[in-house]
Amino acid sequence: MRDSSHLARVPRFGRSVVLILFVLVVAVGVRAPALGDDPPWIARGHYGMVASDSAEASAIGARVLEEGGNAFDAAVATSLALTVARPQSTGIGGGGFLVAWLADEKRAIALDFRESAPMAATAERYARLAEFAGDGPSPSVYGGAAVGVPGLVAGLGHVHDRYGSREWVDLVSPAVDLAMRGVLVDEHLHEAIEDALKEADKWPSLRKDYAGLFGRFAPDGVVPSLGARIRRDDLARALRIIAIRGGGAMREGPLADAILRAIDKSGGIMMSADLRDYVVKEREPVRISYHGCEIITMPPPSSGGVCAAITLRALEAVGDFKGDPQREMLARVEAMKHGFADRSRWLGDTDFAKAPVAFLLNQDYGARVSDALKQSRTMKPEAYGTTEIKGSVGGAAKDDGGTSHFCIIDRAGNVVSMTETINGGFGSFVVAEPYGIILNNELDDFLTVRGAPNMFGLRQSEANLIAPGKRPLSSMTPTIVLRDGRPILALGGSGGPRIISSTLHVLLNVINDGASLEDALRRIRPHHQWAPDVVYFDEHPPTAMADAFSAFGHELSDERRKGVVQAIQIMPNGELIGGSDPRKGGRPVGVER
Ligand code: GLY
Questions:
Q1: Which residue, 66, 154, 252, 582, is most buried by CB atoms nearer than 10 A?
Q2: What are the boundaries of each domain within the chain?
Q3: Do residues 463 and 455 touch, judged by C-beta distance below 8 A?
């Protein structure tokens, strides 16, 4: 097992080239291309790869692969390690989606272990709660009423029972060890704790009401220094219970009791039957063809797959932009606006709302994108997507602290692309004691109050109105790309609605432009989510790009929010290249034996 810091013995002739390039750099001031020494967020391997947004979680997953576990075993171990390593983003108090390619059977699967609304969660109740809260902290963002029934542990249990090969306890114990060592305070966690403290400055009641969270991560209101470790003996206890009780550990028993107590104490309405009756769902993945590839991604209750598919189909119809990067970016944003318009108007949990998925996947917005490009002008929001579909319910209508994505490939060629989340940074701020389980605030991904946008500024339709047992619409987009029936790329991301645009940009950079994974991950990512009607960038755009967008009639936001993508590329010679977005400090780890 090795990461990229142990890479590449540069051959003799290579050394001369490096020397020449070094002289060039000094003499002419050009930046030399890296020769065989990738940045630390790129890794190479031949027998397996794990790319997650935590170096420690990737290493734990890679060790499982090295010891003969398959991609599903490694997914269980990586996910539980992320519970410890990324408490601001994900964990056993949350849920997620998994898309996988089973190499032997040449078959794709999509698993849904997204949180669901408790049986007492009605739209009327949430409208009343919002009214009582007035200008205070939103009840769908903070506190027990924000918490959806967690599905992650049940999901991992399902993954292990159906597709895994190793003993469950062996997959849980590395996370227990990590919890005892403590979570490393890196830049992303440091920033997430600072953000939580800023929220508490806005609403001082938060610090008192969620003392369990602040006491653990910012004792005396002070953010631990970078490089410190916060021991999580509490979470280690919870993980030991999971090691013994398996995927049913959160249905009943001490962890379920702790969750219900915490939710009850903080204004929630979850009952023991909600936890006991939670089901993991196997769904049909969304599959579309794109430029000779097949894209396999997540269906509702994720909007990610459908939104991405609409965008890709439109771009394919528009054609090639080689040599005109500004025009290509404008086209990407035009196509994205159609995808997000349809997302907002029509999508929801298809087990509850009659979301017209097949209809939307057949839409071809290419002509409308081409038109806008010909006229050099973006259009009013009403001109995007489909405004009326017979018999369907729709029509009304954040940077990510939460959410974590990882990709895994094993030596047999099985591929896992999994995104998991507690939604906002540190979820609902509610902590189930004495286990330190941070509970999600996934119910904010529903339309909880008609007409109001959620914390990501997303507009939602009646199709995504909260209802008992329903799962909130998500943007999570775990994706696998096949060419000639073989996986060539796995990817997905975190970042609220930026999950979709970030995943799309990286996919397009690799598939359309032939960019290296390193370059594909580095490039700037314009984002437009239809409403509000502005273009966002994750970093300051180059002047030529900003000018092109302004001239096209776009309003440009000064807000700089990031999506974070993890990806693995499978090269034609079988080499695996893992990439962890430099925007969050993750590290891929390759397996070499
Ligand atoms: N909670 C973020 C998402 O599911 O889109």
A1: 154
A2: 73-281+400-464
A3: no
